[in-house]
Amino acid sequence: MRTPSAILTQVTLALVLVVSFAVSAEEEPTLDLPPAPSEDVQQIKEVCLDLITEQEVAPEEQEHFLLTCVNDQLYEMGYLAVQQRDLK
């Protein structure tokens, strides 16, 4: 069972992701950013997977959407982008 604060965190991340996905799709991440903690990457990944379901992203676009969604949020949080293999 998820606690109210965990649900609030996920909702907040989802809202930030929707906004940042639209705004920063063309920005390139810089290499001087620190890598994100794996727990943060996993939490962001879960929110992005929920967005894939909610937005009914086509199966052939899901992998790209997931990577873009996670990296946009990491960039907004001041972390280095991840590679597709890091999301497996």
Give an overview in words.
- The protein is an all-alpha fold and 88 residues long.
- The chain has one domain (4-24, 32-87).
- The chain has three helices and no strands.
- The chain has helices at 4-23, 38-54, 62-76.
- The longest helix has 20 residues, at 4-23.
- The radius of gyration is 13 Å and the shape is globular.
- The mean pLDDT is 82.
- Residues 1-25 form the signal peptide.
- Keywords: Signal.
Helices and strands: which structural class? mainly alpha
**Global morphology:** globular
Question: Average pLDDT, to the nearest integer?
Answer: 82
Residue fraction in strands: under 5%
Identify low-pLDDT runs. none
Count of DSSP strands: 0
Number of spatially distinct domains? 1
Share in helix: 55-70%
DSSP summary: helix tally: 3
SSE ordering: HHH
* Radius of gyration (Å): 13 Å
CA(first)-CA(last) distance: 25 Å
Largest sheet: none
Keywords: Signal
What's the layout of helices and strands?
Layout: H1 4-23, H2 38-54, H3 62-76
Helix pairs in contact: 1-2, 1-3, 2-3
